[in-house]
Amino acid sequence: MNAYSNLKIFHHSDALDAIARGEHRAPFYIRLKPTNVCNHHCAYCTYGSGGTTQKTENRNAIDHRDSIPWPKLQEILSDMGRMGVKAITFSGGGEPLCYPQITDAANLAREQGIELSLISNGQLLSGNRAEAFCTAKWVRISFDSPVQATYCRLRGLPASAFDTVTRNIADFAKMKDKDCVLGVNFVISHANADKVYEAARLLRELGCDNVKFAAVVENEPHYHAPIKDHVIEQIHRAQADFAKNGFVIINNYENDWMDKNFHAQPFNICYTCRLVTVIAADQRVYFCHTRAYDSEAVVGDLHDQSFYGMWFSEATKQRLQTLRPRKDCKNFCVYQQRNELIAAYVDVDMRHVNFI
Fold this sequence. Notes:
Number of helices: 12
Protein backbone atom coordinates (compact mmCIF):
# COMPACT_ATOMS: atom_id res chain seq x y z
CA MET A 1 0.00 0.00 0.00
CA ASN A 2 1.63 3.24 -1.20
CA ALA A 3 0.57 6.27 0.83
CA TYR A 4 2.66 8.56 -1.39
CA SER A 5 1.38 7.37 -4.77
CA ASN A 6 0.80 10.05 -7.40
CA LEU A 7 -1.99 7.85 -8.73
CA LYS A 8 -4.24 8.75 -5.78
CA ILE A 9 -5.46 11.64 -7.91
CA PHE A 10 -7.31 9.22 -10.18
CA HIS A 11 -9.61 8.25 -7.32
CA HIS A 12 -10.98 11.80 -7.74
CA SER A 13 -12.08 11.30 -11.33
CA ASP A 14 -15.05 13.64 -10.87
CA ALA A 15 -12.64 16.51 -10.17
CA LEU A 16 -10.45 15.56 -13.14
CA ASP A 17 -13.46 15.40 -15.42
CA ALA A 18 -14.52 18.84 -14.18
CA ILE A 19 -11.09 20.20 -15.11
CA ALA A 20 -11.43 18.67 -18.57
CA ARG A 21 -14.76 20.49 -18.95
CA GLY A 22 -13.18 23.77 -17.85
CA GLU A 23 -15.08 23.96 -14.55
CA HIS A 24 -13.73 25.76 -11.49
CA ARG A 25 -14.28 23.80 -8.28
CA ALA A 26 -13.29 24.02 -4.65
CA PRO A 27 -9.95 22.40 -3.80
CA PHE A 28 -10.37 19.03 -2.13
CA TYR A 29 -7.06 19.12 -0.23
CA ILE A 30 -5.40 22.10 1.48
CA ARG A 31 -2.04 22.65 3.12
CA LEU A 32 -2.76 24.95 6.05
CA LYS A 33 0.14 26.82 7.65
CA PRO A 34 -1.29 28.43 10.79
CA THR A 35 1.99 29.96 11.97
CA ASN A 36 5.52 30.75 10.87
CA VAL A 37 6.77 30.59 14.45
CA CYS A 38 9.11 27.64 14.93
CA ASN A 39 10.90 26.11 17.91
CA HIS A 40 13.58 24.50 15.72
CA HIS A 41 16.18 26.18 13.50
CA CYS A 42 17.00 23.50 10.94
CA ALA A 43 20.08 24.14 8.83
CA TYR A 44 18.33 22.95 5.66
CA CYS A 45 14.96 24.67 6.23
CA THR A 46 13.68 26.04 2.93
CA TYR A 47 11.72 28.64 4.91
CA GLY A 48 14.95 29.94 6.45
CA SER A 49 13.58 29.58 9.95
CA GLY A 50 15.60 31.29 12.64
CA GLY A 51 17.93 33.00 10.20
CA THR A 52 19.24 29.84 8.54
CA THR A 53 20.73 30.36 5.10
CA GLN A 54 19.05 27.57 3.13
CA LYS A 55 15.85 29.55 2.45
CA THR A 56 14.71 28.81 -1.09
CA GLU A 57 15.30 31.86 -3.27
CA ASN A 58 11.65 32.17 -4.27
CA ARG A 59 10.51 32.55 -0.63
CA ASN A 60 10.93 36.32 -0.61
CA ALA A 61 7.82 37.26 1.37
CA ILE A 62 8.10 35.31 4.63
CA ASP A 63 7.85 36.92 8.06
CA HIS A 64 8.68 34.39 10.79
CA ARG A 65 6.41 36.23 13.25
CA ASP A 66 3.25 35.70 11.20
CA SER A 67 0.31 33.64 12.44
CA ILE A 68 -3.28 33.49 11.24
CA PRO A 69 -5.45 35.22 13.87
CA TRP A 70 -7.70 32.67 15.57
CA PRO A 71 -10.99 34.34 14.52
CA LYS A 72 -9.77 34.31 10.91
CA LEU A 73 -8.70 30.68 11.10
CA GLN A 74 -12.14 29.76 12.46
CA GLU A 75 -13.70 31.52 9.48
CA ILE A 76 -11.36 29.73 7.06
CA LEU A 77 -12.10 26.30 8.53
CA SER A 78 -15.85 26.97 8.41
CA ASP A 79 -15.51 27.99 4.77
CA MET A 80 -13.64 24.76 4.04
CA GLY A 81 -16.53 22.77 5.46
CA ARG A 82 -19.02 24.77 3.42
CA MET A 83 -16.95 24.25 0.25
CA GLY A 84 -16.63 20.50 0.71
CA VAL A 85 -12.88 20.38 1.30
CA LYS A 86 -12.03 16.75 2.04
CA ALA A 87 -8.68 16.96 3.84
CA ILE A 88 -6.15 19.36 5.32
CA THR A 89 -2.57 19.09 6.51
CA PHE A 90 -1.38 21.38 9.27
CA SER A 91 2.21 22.18 8.34
CA GLY A 92 4.88 24.91 8.27
CA GLY A 93 5.79 27.76 7.63
CA GLY A 94 6.81 27.21 11.16
CA GLU A 95 5.89 24.46 13.59
CA PRO A 96 2.09 24.06 13.54
CA LEU A 97 2.02 22.81 17.14
CA CYS A 98 3.39 26.24 18.18
CA TYR A 99 0.03 27.73 17.17
CA PRO A 100 -1.74 28.51 20.48
CA GLN A 101 -5.16 27.27 19.32
CA ILE A 102 -3.94 24.23 17.38
CA THR A 103 -6.04 21.75 19.37
CA ASP A 104 -9.15 23.88 18.84
CA ALA A 105 -8.33 24.16 15.13
CA ALA A 106 -7.99 20.38 14.82
CA ASN A 107 -11.29 19.84 16.61
CA LEU A 108 -13.09 22.45 14.49
CA ALA A 109 -11.82 20.87 11.28
CA ARG A 110 -13.03 17.49 12.50
CA GLU A 111 -16.47 18.98 13.25
CA GLN A 112 -16.58 20.23 9.65
CA GLY A 113 -16.10 16.65 8.41
CA ILE A 114 -12.56 17.35 7.17
CA GLU A 115 -9.90 14.65 7.42
CA LEU A 116 -6.78 15.71 9.33
CA SER A 117 -3.05 15.23 9.04
CA LEU A 118 -0.03 16.88 10.62
CA ILE A 119 3.58 17.59 9.67
CA SER A 120 5.57 18.39 12.80
CA ASN A 121 9.04 18.29 14.32
CA GLY A 122 7.49 16.35 17.20
CA GLN A 123 8.90 18.29 20.13
CA LEU A 124 5.44 19.52 21.22
CA LEU A 125 3.58 16.31 20.29
CA SER A 126 2.45 15.47 23.81
CA GLY A 127 -0.48 16.07 26.14
CA ASN A 128 -3.53 17.76 24.61
CA ARG A 129 -1.74 18.39 21.32
CA ALA A 130 -1.01 14.70 20.86
CA GLU A 131 -4.56 13.76 21.83
CA ALA A 132 -5.95 16.19 19.23
CA PHE A 133 -4.19 14.28 16.44
CA CYS A 134 -4.60 10.70 17.68
CA THR A 135 -7.40 10.14 15.18
CA ALA A 136 -5.76 12.02 12.29
CA LYS A 137 -5.29 10.08 9.08
CA TRP A 138 -1.55 10.51 9.41
CA VAL A 139 1.10 12.32 11.42
CA ARG A 140 4.57 12.82 9.92
CA ILE A 141 7.56 13.81 12.01
CA SER A 142 10.60 15.55 10.54
CA PHE A 143 13.57 13.70 12.02
CA ASP A 144 17.05 13.69 10.57
CA SER A 145 19.53 11.76 12.70
CA PRO A 146 19.57 8.83 15.13
CA VAL A 147 22.59 10.49 16.78
CA GLN A 148 21.78 13.06 19.44
CA ALA A 149 24.69 15.39 18.70
CA THR A 150 24.02 15.47 14.94
CA TYR A 151 20.28 15.91 15.40
CA CYS A 152 20.70 18.84 17.76
CA ARG A 153 23.44 20.47 15.67
CA LEU A 154 21.28 20.33 12.53
CA ARG A 155 18.34 21.87 14.38
CA GLY A 156 20.07 24.34 16.67
CA LEU A 157 18.74 22.64 19.81
CA PRO A 158 20.02 21.63 23.26
CA ALA A 159 20.84 17.96 23.77
CA SER A 160 17.66 17.35 25.78
CA ALA A 161 15.50 17.99 22.69
CA PHE A 162 16.54 14.69 21.09
CA ASP A 163 15.28 12.72 24.08
CA THR A 164 12.03 14.71 24.12
CA VAL A 165 11.31 14.06 20.46
CA THR A 166 12.15 10.36 20.53
CA ARG A 167 10.05 9.92 23.67
CA ASN A 168 7.13 11.77 22.06
CA ILE A 169 7.36 9.57 18.94
CA ALA A 170 7.31 6.40 21.05
CA ASP A 171 4.44 7.64 23.24
CA PHE A 172 2.36 8.77 20.27
CA ALA A 173 2.91 5.43 18.54
CA LYS A 174 1.25 3.77 21.55
CA MET A 175 -1.63 6.22 22.03
CA LYS A 176 -2.71 6.94 18.44
CA ASP A 177 -5.68 5.30 16.76
CA LYS A 178 -4.70 2.18 14.83
CA ASP A 179 -5.77 3.83 11.55
CA CYS A 180 -3.56 6.87 12.15
CA VAL A 181 -0.30 6.32 10.26
CA LEU A 182 2.77 7.59 12.10
CA GLY A 183 5.53 8.35 9.62
CA VAL A 184 8.89 10.08 9.59
CA ASN A 185 10.40 12.24 6.87
CA PHE A 186 14.19 11.86 6.97
CA VAL A 187 15.93 14.45 4.79
CA ILE A 188 19.38 13.24 3.72
CA SER A 189 22.33 15.62 3.58
CA HIS A 190 26.08 15.32 3.98
CA ALA A 191 25.62 15.67 7.75
CA ASN A 192 23.56 12.49 8.19
CA ALA A 193 24.31 10.43 5.07
CA ASP A 194 26.21 7.76 6.98
CA LYS A 195 23.41 7.17 9.52
CA VAL A 196 20.55 6.16 7.24
CA TYR A 197 20.60 2.48 8.19
CA GLU A 198 20.77 3.28 11.92
CA ALA A 199 17.88 5.73 11.53
CA ALA A 200 15.65 3.05 10.05
CA ARG A 201 16.51 0.74 12.93
CA LEU A 202 15.73 3.38 15.58
CA LEU A 203 12.46 4.53 14.01
CA ARG A 204 11.20 0.98 13.77
CA GLU A 205 12.05 0.45 17.44
CA LEU A 206 10.18 3.65 18.38
CA GLY A 207 7.00 2.26 16.82
CA CYS A 208 6.76 4.29 13.61
CA ASP A 209 4.70 2.87 10.76
CA ASN A 210 7.03 4.16 8.07
CA VAL A 211 10.04 6.30 7.25
CA LYS A 212 10.47 8.17 4.00
CA PHE A 213 14.04 8.90 2.94
CA ALA A 214 14.29 12.02 0.76
CA ALA A 215 17.08 14.18 -0.62
CA VAL A 216 17.72 17.63 0.75
CA VAL A 217 17.10 20.24 -1.95
CA GLU A 218 20.36 22.12 -2.30
CA ASN A 219 21.30 25.29 -4.13
CA GLU A 220 24.72 23.74 -4.85
CA PRO A 221 25.01 21.74 -8.11
CA HIS A 222 25.95 18.03 -7.81
CA TYR A 223 25.58 18.17 -4.02
CA HIS A 224 24.50 14.53 -3.69
CA ALA A 225 27.05 12.98 -6.06
CA PRO A 226 29.66 12.13 -3.37
CA ILE A 227 27.14 10.45 -1.01
CA LYS A 228 24.41 8.94 -3.18
CA ASP A 229 25.87 5.45 -3.66
CA HIS A 230 26.47 4.92 0.05
CA VAL A 231 23.03 6.29 0.91
CA ILE A 232 21.25 4.05 -1.59
CA GLU A 233 23.15 0.99 -0.34
CA GLN A 234 22.03 1.74 3.23
CA ILE A 235 18.40 2.17 2.21
CA HIS A 236 18.39 -1.14 0.36
CA ARG A 237 20.02 -2.89 3.33
CA ALA A 238 17.53 -1.31 5.74
CA GLN A 239 14.62 -2.44 3.56
CA ALA A 240 15.95 -6.00 3.61
CA ASP A 241 16.52 -6.01 7.38
CA PHE A 242 13.74 -3.86 8.83
CA ALA A 243 10.82 -3.64 6.36
CA LYS A 244 8.69 -6.27 8.05
CA ASN A 245 5.79 -6.63 10.49
CA GLY A 246 4.08 -3.56 9.02
CA PHE A 247 7.08 -1.20 9.05
CA VAL A 248 7.56 0.42 5.63
CA ILE A 249 10.70 2.09 4.27
CA ILE A 250 9.91 4.50 1.44
CA ASN A 251 12.87 5.12 -0.86
CA ASN A 252 12.30 8.51 -2.44
CA TYR A 253 15.99 9.33 -2.33
CA GLU A 254 17.07 7.01 -5.13
CA ASN A 255 15.10 8.88 -7.77
CA ASP A 256 15.24 12.25 -6.04
CA TRP A 257 18.90 13.11 -5.47
CA MET A 258 19.42 14.89 -8.80
CA ASP A 259 19.91 18.64 -9.09
CA LYS A 260 16.24 19.60 -9.03
CA ASN A 261 16.85 23.29 -8.47
CA PHE A 262 18.62 23.59 -11.80
CA HIS A 263 15.94 22.42 -14.25
CA ALA A 264 13.03 24.31 -15.79
CA GLN A 265 9.57 22.76 -15.64
CA PRO A 266 8.90 20.43 -18.61
CA PHE A 267 5.12 21.06 -18.65
CA ASN A 268 3.09 24.15 -19.44
CA ILE A 269 -0.11 23.71 -17.40
CA CYS A 270 -0.43 23.18 -13.65
CA TYR A 271 -3.58 21.19 -13.01
CA THR A 272 -2.72 20.37 -9.40
CA CYS A 273 -3.05 23.95 -8.19
CA ARG A 274 -6.72 23.86 -9.21
CA LEU A 275 -7.34 20.86 -6.94
CA VAL A 276 -4.89 21.48 -4.09
CA THR A 277 -3.93 24.81 -2.55
CA VAL A 278 -2.02 26.37 0.34
CA ILE A 279 -3.21 28.85 2.93
CA ALA A 280 -0.20 30.34 4.70
CA ALA A 281 0.39 32.13 7.98
CA ASP A 282 0.43 35.52 6.20
CA GLN A 283 -3.27 34.94 5.31
CA ARG A 284 -2.47 34.57 1.64
CA VAL A 285 -3.32 31.68 -0.67
CA TYR A 286 -0.50 30.32 -2.85
CA PHE A 287 -0.30 28.02 -5.88
CA CYS A 288 1.47 25.24 -3.95
CA HIS A 289 3.57 24.63 -0.84
CA THR A 290 6.79 24.78 -2.88
CA ARG A 291 5.92 28.36 -3.83
CA ALA A 292 4.46 29.44 -0.50
CA TYR A 293 5.74 32.89 0.47
CA ASP A 294 6.72 33.61 -3.13
CA SER A 295 5.37 37.09 -3.87
CA GLU A 296 4.80 36.08 -7.50
CA ALA A 297 2.76 32.99 -6.55
CA VAL A 298 -0.08 34.61 -4.59
CA VAL A 299 -3.50 33.42 -5.72
CA GLY A 300 -5.46 35.61 -3.33
CA ASP A 301 -5.32 37.55 -0.05
CA LEU A 302 -7.67 36.70 2.83
CA HIS A 303 -7.04 39.77 4.96
CA ASP A 304 -10.19 41.51 3.71
CA GLN A 305 -12.21 38.66 2.21
CA SER A 306 -13.33 35.16 3.03
CA PHE A 307 -11.65 32.08 1.61
CA TYR A 308 -14.97 31.09 0.04
CA GLY A 309 -15.38 34.44 -1.70
CA MET A 310 -11.77 34.59 -2.81
CA TRP A 311 -11.67 31.06 -4.23
CA PHE A 312 -14.83 31.38 -6.30
CA SER A 313 -13.99 34.82 -7.65
CA GLU A 314 -13.37 35.36 -11.34
CA ALA A 315 -9.92 36.72 -10.47
CA THR A 316 -8.91 33.41 -8.86
CA LYS A 317 -10.28 31.38 -11.74
CA GLN A 318 -8.24 33.43 -14.22
CA ARG A 319 -5.15 33.36 -12.01
CA LEU A 320 -5.13 29.55 -11.86
CA GLN A 321 -5.90 29.06 -15.54
CA THR A 322 -3.21 31.44 -16.78
CA LEU A 323 -0.31 30.03 -14.72
CA ARG A 324 2.35 28.67 -17.07
CA PRO A 325 4.94 26.67 -15.08
CA ARG A 326 7.44 26.49 -17.93
CA LYS A 327 7.66 30.28 -17.81
CA ASP A 328 6.43 31.28 -14.34
CA CYS A 329 7.86 28.66 -11.94
CA LYS A 330 11.58 29.05 -11.37
CA ASN A 331 11.80 26.42 -8.60
CA PHE A 332 11.57 22.62 -8.75
CA CYS A 333 8.04 21.17 -8.79
CA VAL A 334 6.98 18.49 -6.32
CA TYR A 335 3.88 17.98 -8.46
CA GLN A 336 5.65 17.39 -11.78
CA GLN A 337 4.72 13.73 -12.18
CA ARG A 338 1.17 14.36 -11.02
CA ASN A 339 0.72 17.21 -13.50
CA GLU A 340 2.04 15.05 -16.32
CA LEU A 341 -0.34 12.24 -15.38
CA ILE A 342 -3.32 14.59 -15.25
CA ALA A 343 -2.32 16.10 -18.60
CA ALA A 344 -2.31 12.63 -20.13
CA TYR A 345 -5.77 11.97 -18.65
CA VAL A 346 -7.25 15.26 -19.85
CA ASP A 347 -5.71 14.88 -23.31
CA VAL A 348 -7.53 11.63 -24.11
CA ASP A 349 -9.63 11.69 -27.30
CA MET A 350 -12.94 10.59 -25.79
CA ARG A 351 -14.20 9.44 -29.21
CA HIS A 352 -11.75 6.54 -28.88
CA VAL A 353 -11.91 6.02 -25.11
CA ASN A 354 -13.18 2.44 -25.37
CA PHE A 355 -10.31 1.28 -27.59
CA ILE A 356 -7.89 0.59 -24.79
